[in-house]
Structures are given as structure tokens and as C-alpha cells.
Amino acid sequence: MAKILHVGGAIKSFSELVSFGHTVDTVQNGMIALSALSIHHYDTVIIEDELPLLTPAKLIYEINALSRRFPIIAIIRKDVRRNEILNDFDNDLFGWFEPKIGTTEQLSKLIDRAHEYHKFLK
Fold first, then answer.
1. Pick the CATH number of 3-121 from 1.10.150.750, 3.20.20.60, 3.30.479.30, 3.40.50.2300
2. pLDDT: is 122 or 86 the higher one?
């Protein structure tokens, strides 16, 4: 299954994703995420809708500037952030998930599709 980098801290645990076979590393902000992406191999990046230091839009831009490509999934918890984040589909956002209306199984399936896409990019 997929090795995931989760960026943010509002969602404390993705233990349910681990039960679907995924591996999840969590970092608290975008600067640490960029460092982790330059050192480790990840199949998918999950970005929360509010981050310290870099906005989600800026982090998506910075990730896309890296030489390696990663499917990026946005976690949208607040309606106010939806439009800003969904505008990033033009900047290679792979997908989004809203915890208040979606299930962990749906998120896992989205991650599986992102993982397959990432294998295609290699």
C-alpha cells in the first residue's frame, strides 16, 4: 500500500488508514514537509486546509517545484477554505477529502488511486 506524508496537526491520527495497510508519517508544517520529501520516499502527500508557516496553496506550489512528482490530497475541514484549496486543481492537486462528509474507507480508496497514479509517473 501507500507510504503517505501527512502535513498538519489538526487531525491527530490516521490510525484507521494504517488498518487499510498504509504507512503514515506526520509533520507539523510545510517547511518540515519539504525537507521530508527531499529525504524520504513517499507515494502521496496529504495536506490539511490550515498550516503554519506556508499556506496549503504555497506548499502545493513548492511540492510541484520539486524534481519528483507526488499526488497531493487536500483535507478540507472548513467550508471557508474549500474554494482556495479547490482552485489548486489547476496546480496538480490530485484530490480532496472532507472528513465531515466522507469515510476513512473513501479516503483510503482515494489514496489507493493516488498511489497507482504515482507508480505511473515513475
1. 3.40.50.2300
2. 86
Q: What is the pLDDT of residue 75?
A: 92
Q: Is the pLDDT of residue 6 over 90?
A: yes
Burial of 49 (0-12, 13-18, 19+ CB in 10 A): buried
b/e sequence 71-108, b meaning 16+ C-beta within 10 Å: bbbbbbbeeebeeebeebeeeebbbbbbeeeeeeeebb
Indicate the DSSP class of residue 53: S
Instruction: Name the amino acid, one letter, at 24.
Output: V
Q: Rounded to 5, what percent of the chain is helix, strand, coil? A: 45, 20, 35
Q: Is the pLDDT of residue 14 over 80?
A: no
Instruction: Give the CB-side neighbour count of residue 83, counting CA atoms within 13 A.
Output: 1
| pLDDT tier, 89 (very low <50, low <70, confident <90, very high otherwise) | low
